[in-house]
């Protein structure tokens, strides 16, 4: 097998400006950048389930609610904002659940789908917005911009290693009913890539990180990222599509690129908040 040059070229073109934005954007513009990312990912998510209609006129009408969960569901910290938030995430999400199920109680189209449709709508808010907002919380931590870069390095390093090892050496199927192309060898390669990226991140970005953190994050982020990738494969396979969109040439859609990150980000945030031993 030959290395797909277009895939490498697109990654090489996109990574430098992404790193620049993470490092140099002030906190509030960074929050808006994540808001745009979440809206785009939600659009792709609803597009998977509403393939016969425009996401903007079907499930996509709930995209704004995911954005609301992002902007009003958290008490912003430090330089993010000095505004006091009176409605916590739990309250906002509870109201959204009640309104969604009440709407479908009276407005369902087929009673056999009366459970499925609100579940799809609710997950379209909880999945992208609920998980990716962890990036904002990570950015608000001390040295948050370097923590974000470290997270991206580990998650995408693991993804890349899993892809190439699986492509060249993969023989035993990992979970064929969910993802027919993923292999056991690729999963092992992903864990190796996670460890290599953690070591590189410690050396370049976070030299004061303790070795226990390197070991713990290799395992936690490597496993969380691969589970997130499999979950997105399950969603796509259940509706019969290969990629969430064709937005990124040779890579697929945004959902295809942040599936691992969405699962790894909250794990990393809570580890950094509770178990961090760098200081």
Question: Could you walk me through the main structural features you see in this protein, from its secondary elements to its overall organization?
Answer:
This protein has one domain. The protein is globular and about 60 Å long. The protein is 68% helix and 3% strand. It has 279 residues and is an all-alpha fold. A hairpin with a 3-residue loop joins strand 1 and strand 2. The protein has eleven helices and two strands, in the order H-H-H-H-H-H-H-H-E-E-H-H-H.
Write a compact overview of the structure shown:
The chain is mostly helical and 279 residues long.
Strand-helix topology:
Elements: H1 5-24, H2 27-49, H3 63-72, H4 89-107, H5 116-126, H6 128-132, H7 134-139, H8 144-169, E1 173-175, E2 179-183, H9 184-204, H10 211-239, H11 254-274
Antiparallel strand pairs: 1-2
Query: Which of globular, elongated, flat, extended, rod-shaped describes the shape?
Result: globular
Show unreliable segments.
Answer: 72-87
The number of distinct β-strands equals 2
Using only C-alpha atoms, the radius of gyration works out to: 19 Å
Distance between the termini: 45 Å
Tally of helical segments: 11
The helix fraction, in percent, is 55-70%
Q: What structural class should be given to the helix and strand makeup?
A: mainly alpha
Strand percent estimate: under 5%
Count up the domains. Answer: 1
Mean pLDDT reading: 79
Please write the string of helix (H) and strand (E) elements. HHHHHHHHEEHHH
Assembly status: single chain
Main beta sheet, described? 2 strands, antiparallel
Strand adjacency order, main sheet: 1-2
């Amino acid at each position: 097998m030959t290395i797909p040059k277009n895939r490498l070229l697109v990654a090489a073109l996109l990574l430098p400006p992404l790193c620049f934005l993470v490092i140099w954007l002030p906190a509030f513009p960074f929050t808006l950048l994540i808001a745009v990312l979440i809206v785009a990912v939600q659009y792709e998510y609803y597009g998977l389930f509403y393939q016969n209609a425009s996401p903007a006129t079907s499930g996509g009408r709930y995209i704004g609610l995911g954005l609301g969960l992002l902007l009003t569901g958290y008490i912003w910290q430090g330089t993010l904002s000095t505004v006091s938030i009176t409605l916590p995430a739990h309250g906002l999400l509870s109201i959204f659940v009640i309104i969604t199920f009440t709407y479908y109680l009276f407005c369902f189209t087929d009673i056999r789908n009366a459970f499925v449709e609100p579940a799809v709508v609710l997950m379209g808010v909880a999945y992208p917005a609920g998980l990716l907002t962890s990036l904002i919380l990570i950015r608000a931590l001390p040295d948050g911009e370097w923590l974000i870069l470290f997270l991206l390095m580990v998650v995408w390093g693991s993804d890349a290693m899993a892809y190439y090892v699986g492509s060249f050496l993969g023989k035993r199927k990992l979970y064929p009913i969910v993802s027919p192309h993923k292999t056991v060898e690729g999963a092992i390669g992903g864990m190796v890539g996670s460890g290599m990226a953690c070591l590189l991140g410690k050396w370049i970005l976070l030299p004061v990180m303790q070795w226990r953190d390197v070991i713990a994050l290799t395992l936690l982020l490597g496993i969380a990222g691969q589970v997130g990738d499999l979950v997105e494969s399950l969603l796509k396979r259940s509706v019969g599509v290969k990629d969430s969109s064709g937005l990124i040439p040779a890579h697929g859609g945004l959902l295809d690129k942040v599936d691992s990150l969405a699962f790894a980000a909250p794990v990393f945030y809570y580890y950094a908040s509770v178990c961090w031993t760098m200081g």
